[in-house]
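hey
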C-alpha cells in the first residue's frame, strides 16, 4: 500500500461543501481559525484571485486552483483590486448557501467547504503537511512547440472532479448533498496525490512519498509499529548508514523519523481505544510500548489527555 493510502486508511477524512460563491469585483472571503478536526478548502472554478495567509507574501490564484489549510489557520482570498468589498448576500439553496454580491468587476466563481477529520489523533496528517497548500491543476498542461497549452484543465482527473462538484452544486437533484460531500472527500485524496506527484512536492509527508529510497523505513513503521524500530535498523532497511538516513529523512519531512513513528503509533492507539474494548496496557504493547507507564506518558504528551480519558470522550478531543 502506498504512503497516502496508508495515512488515509488510518485517518478517515470526509468532506462537506458549504458555500457556492458568485462574485464580481470587488469581493473578499475572510475566514478565521478553523474548528477542531476541520481543514478549510476553496476551489477557484473561474476567474482570478489573491490569497493572503499568515505573514507570507500574497499569492495570485487562477481558475482551477485548489487551496486547503491543513493547519486550519485564518486566511483571506480577494479579487486583488484593493477596493473595499460590499458584504455578500447569502441565500439558502437546497443543500448549501449561495453567496452573491453586487460587484460589477471581473467575475469569480468559488466553491468553499471543509474536509472533516475523523475522531482519531490527527497529528500524523496535520503535522506532516504544510499549513497552506495550493494545488494548481490548470498548470499541469504540457506545452506544445508553439508555447501553447497542449492539454486542457478538463483533461485532468482533478478537473473532472471539480467540474462534477460544480455541476451538482448548481443543478441539484435527488441525493446531490450526499454526492457532493462524497466528492469533497475524494477531492482531498486526489489533491494530495496531485501535489505529491509534482516536480517539487511540498515539504513534508507529500515529498516523502516521492523518495523511494526511504520507502522501506516507512513500510516498516506502518507494518510493524509494535517492533522496537531503531534508527540504525531503519537506516539498514534503506541501505543507508544511520547518519545518512537521519539526514535525508529530516531534509525531506522537516521532522525526525522517531517523531513520525510516534505519530503512527499514537494514531493506531487512538483508533483501537475508540473502536475496541481492548485494555489500555495491551493496546500500548500493540503499538510498541512494553511499559504501560511509558505508553500513558507519551500518549498524554502527544494527545493532551490520558488513554482512558480519550476512550471516554470517544476520541473527540482538541488537538494539542
Amino acid at each position: 500500500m502506498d504512503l497516502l493510502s496508508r495515512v488515509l486508511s488510518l485517518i478517515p477524512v470526509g468532506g462537506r461543501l458549504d458555500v457556492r460563491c458568485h462574485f464580481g469585483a470587488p469581493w473578499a472571503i475572510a475566514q478565521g481559525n478553523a474548528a477542531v478536526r476541520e481543514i478549510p478548502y476553496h476551489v477557484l472554478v473561474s476567474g482570478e484571485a489573491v490569497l493572503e495567509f499568515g505573514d507570507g507574501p500574497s499569492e495570485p490564484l487562477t481558475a482551477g486552483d485548489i487551496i486547503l489549510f491543513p493547519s486550519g489557520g485564518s486566511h483571506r482570498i480577494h479579487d486583488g483590486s484593493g477596493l473595499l468589498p460590499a458584504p455578500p448576500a447569502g441565500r439558502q439553496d437546497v443543500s448549501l448557501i449561495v453567496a452573491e454580491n453586487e460587484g460589477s468587476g471581473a467575475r469569480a466563481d468559488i466553491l468553499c467547504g471543509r474536509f472533516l477529520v475523523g475522531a482519531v489523533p490527527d497529528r500524523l496528517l496535520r503535522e506532516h503537511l504544510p499549513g497552506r497548500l495550493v494545488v494548481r491543476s490548470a498548470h499541469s498542461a504540457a506545452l506544445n512547440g508553439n508555447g501553447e497549452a497542449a492539454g486542457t484543465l478538463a483533461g485532468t482527473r482533478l478537473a473532472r472532479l471539480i467540474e462534477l462538484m460544480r455541476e451538482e452544486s448548481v443543478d441539484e437533484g435527488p441525493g446531490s448533498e450526499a454526492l457532493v460531500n462524497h466528492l469533497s472527500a475524494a477531492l482531498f485524496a486526489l489533491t494530495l496525490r496531485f501535489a505529491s506527484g509534482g516536480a517539487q512536492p511540498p515539504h513534508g509527508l507529500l515529498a516523502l512519498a516521492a523518495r523511494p529510497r526511504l520507502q522501506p523505513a516507512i513500510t516498516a513503521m506502518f507494518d510493524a509499529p509494535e517492533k522496537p524500530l531503531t534508527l540504525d535498523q531503519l537506516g539498514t532497511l534503506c541501505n543507508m548508514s544511520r547518519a545518512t538516513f537521519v539526514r535525508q529523512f529530516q531534509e525531506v519531512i522537516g521532522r525526525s523519523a522517531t517523531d513520525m513513528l510516534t505519530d503512527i503509533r499514537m494514531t493506531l492507539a487512538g483508533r483501537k481505544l475508540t473502536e475496541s474494548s481492548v485494555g489500555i496496557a495491551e493496546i500500548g504493547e500493540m503499538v510498541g510500548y512494553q511499559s504501560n507507564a511509558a505508553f500513558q506518558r507519551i500518549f498524554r504528551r502527544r494527545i493532551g489527555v490520558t488513554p482512558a480519558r480519550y476512550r471516554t470522550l470517544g476520541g473527540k478531543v482538541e488537538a494539542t
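Confidence is low (pLDDT under 50) at residues 140-155. The chain has two domains: 3-200, 211-312.
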